[in-house]
Design a protein that fits this description.
This protein has 634 residues and is an all-alpha fold. The protein is built from 27 helices and 2 strands.
Length: 634
């Protein structure tokens, strides 16, 4: 798919055509009878479009066809490449960073906290992208990313590693979200899945490059992983800078020419009312605080941290679950969870999950992705650590290649999934097929923890997990974005990501609790006569030590039996996601940006249509219409 996609003219910015400009030869998807049913509340179109949405739509007018559009896509591609290179390498470093402090067990806690932070930050980033602009939100994400990596690379304690990972999680989730929003902004539904897949293709190349990087810097040594984090403190900001320059320049030029008035009637009215009293700084702070529902985000974030973190801390805390600190965390978490629900349903002016975006397809997509992440994190939180221990014959490069099977498969098959959507103009049956493949994959995974740990079983299960995951994620994302208007798209995706991250965090908490209890217990059962308590603690605290410890067959048995229940639970839960997949609406994937606004088509406009004088003239006409409306209202 990569070659045909590269030869195509890139999709462009959505532009809302006036009625008199609709071409007679064109038919919308609804006119063709290809949209089965409305999937959003009736008042969705009345929601005022945010400044960020208006700005990204106005870029169409200043870019048009030609080098400017290619420059935009090229800058986004550069962001994709360096970001995936970073994740392909640093993904494997966390286990060794914590093991260097003999605190490998804290991986579960890190996974819980970072998962919650990644989820809670999604609505915040989405609101920033909608209210201010896409490049502003991307700049904010890059700042957190760089700061977090600096903290991890320079850490002197495991607490610093945890703090750095929490901070850079805000950055990584933000970069992923904003680039995904940008792609959705400038592609039609029929091409959305294919472009999402193409956006992830750098993962395939970097999966092979990553092995040489990790081996070259001796990442698996006690301090080699520091170089792995440190190099991206420079590379990522430098490579993302061109896209920020292109986007900020496009917004500046659109504002200068008046293109914002063409993209949104509210901007035209603002131009007419220029000079009237504006909000003060304090009023702006209150406005944005309310718009992003900051209080609600804080409540849900602290609630889930307090409820989920104790499960992973119970084995290291004195007295386990009877520790007063853990009891207090559960109590506070419960109170905060109740307070969050009361706040959202009774007091929030702009709730995190507004009712206008709640439709059947979107709710089913939330259920599918929640369960997908739940089953994934239930097994994957310690999966690579387990494989590293049971396969001592694998080299560092072999281990890195195996670690990247999932990412390579997800990316490659995401492109194939997108192409199938492009030519069938449907997503539902493909989504169901992906969910079925995922069930089969989890069945083979369960076979591995039952004793068949051959290279073939491990690799085949990983490949099938990637195929099912690629199809499921691509279809779910396209369905979510297509079921809501453009003004709500970023928020809908943020809600989807929030729910999926919470699903992953819950699973990580369960996985961490099982790992921290079962592994030490089984190490004592099988190695209690050989190693004392201190020595067993050293084995449990570092996968490097566990891999080299003899008798190795007893080490493998202890770790494998500890994961049995997790893999069985993942297999059962996969069937629930399949049920949700059968309940979505199989709407048509056409030229429109979404199924709610068929008039917002993704079209290429000629150089003459995007000339400065033409844009300025049309902007004056739009502002004149707005002036007459304002005068008529008064």
């Amino acid at each position: 798919m990569s070659q045909p996609q590269a030869r195509m003219a890139p999709p462009t910015i959505p532009f809302e055509r006036p009625e008199f400009e609709t071409r007679p030869s064109e038919k919308t998807d609804i006119e063709a009878g290809e949209v089965k049913e409305p999937v959003v509340a009736d008042n969705a179109s009345s929601i005022e479009q945010g400044a960020g949405v208006t700005k990204i739509e106005s870029l169409y007018l200043v870019f048009g066809k030609g080098w400017k559009l290619w420059l935009l896509w090229g800058s986004i591609a550069l962001v994709c490449y360096v970001y995936t290179l970073s994740n392909s390498t640093t993904y494997t470093y966390a286990s060794f960073a914590t093991s260097s402090y003999s605190e490998h067990t804290i991986i579960g806690t890190i996974s819980v906290v970072t998962g919650i932070m990644a989820g809670v930050s999604q609505p915040f980033i989405a609101k920033m992208a909608d209210l201010l602009s896409r490049p502003f939100a991307l700049s904010l994400a890059v700042f957190f990313y760089t700061l977090g990596f600096i903290l991890v690379a320079s850490s002197r304690t495991v607490q610093a590693v945890v703090a750095g990972q929490v901070i850079y999680t805000l950055g990584t989730s933000g970069i992923t979200q904003v680039t995904g929003i940008l792609i959705a902004d400038i592609t039609s539904l029929q091409w959305r899945g294919a472009v999402i897949g193409a956006y992830s293709l750098p993962w395939v190349l970097n999966a092979f490059v990553a092995g040489y990087i990790t081996e070259g810097i001796s990442a698996f040594s006690n301090d080699g992983w520091r170089w792995g984090y440190g190099m991206f403190c420079i590379l990522v900001p430098v490579c993302i800078a061109p896209s920020l320059v292109v986007l900020f320049w496009g917004h500046h030029r659109a504002k200068k020419l008046g293109a914002l008035s063409l993209a949104s009637s509210s901007y035209a009215r603002e131009a007419v009312l220029k000079g009237t009293e504006r909000r003060s700084l304090l009023e702006n702070v209150k406005y944005y605080w309310s718009q992003i529902d900051a209080f609600g985000l804080l409540l849900i974030g602290f609630a889930f941290v307090c409820l989920l973190a104790p499960a992973t801390l119970s084995t290291t805390a004195k007295g386990g679950y009877t520790n007063p600190s853990l009891i207090a965390m559960y109590c506070v978490g419960g109170v905060l969870a109740i307070a969050f629900m009361v706040w959202e349903f009774r007091f929030a002016a702009h709730p995190i999950m507004p009712r206008r975006v709640m439709n059947r397809t979107f709710l089913c997509c939330i259920a599918i992705d929640f369960l997908y992440y739940f089953t994934g994190y239930l097994t994957d939180t310690y999966y690579l650590s387990w494989v590293y221990i049971i396969k001592p014959g694998w080299s560092a490069r072999d281990y890195t290649y195996f670690s990247n099977i999932l990412t390579v498969g997800l990316c490659g098959f995401a492109v194939l999934s997108g192409l199938i959507q492009r030519y069938t103009h449907r997503y539902k049956m493909l989504q169901i097929a992906g969910l079925v493949i995922r069930v089969i994959a989890e069945g083979i995974n369960f076979l591995a923890v039952n004793g068949n740990q051959s290279d073939a079983v491990l690799i085949v299960s990983r490949v099938l997990v990637s195929i099912g995951g690629a199809i499921t994620v691509t279809s779910t994302l396209v369905a979510t974005q297509g079921s809501v208007p453009h003004a709500d798209m970023a928020l809908a995706v943020a809600i989807l990501n929030l729910c999926t991250q919470l699903g992953g965090s819950i699973a990580s908490a369960i996985s961490g609790a099982v790992w921290n209890k079962q592994v030490p217990m089984r190490l004592e059962r099988y190695l209690g006569d050989i190693y004392n308590e201190t020595q067993r603690a050293e084995i449990f605290g570092s996968i490097l030590v566990a891999r080299a410890t003899e008798p190795h067959d007893l080490i493998v048995r202890a770790y494998t039996e500890s994961l049995y229940g997790l893999f069985l639970a993942a297999l059962v839960v996969c069937f629930l996601a399949l049920v949700a997949g059968c309940l979505t609406v199989d709407f048509y994937l056409g030229k429109a940006h979404n199924t709610i606004e068929p008039h917002k088509e993704i079209v290429l406009r000629s150089k003459e249509e995007t000339a400065d004088e033409v844009i300025a003239a049309r902007a004056r006409e739009a502002e004149e219409r707005a002036r007459r409306q304002v005068q008529g209202a008064n």
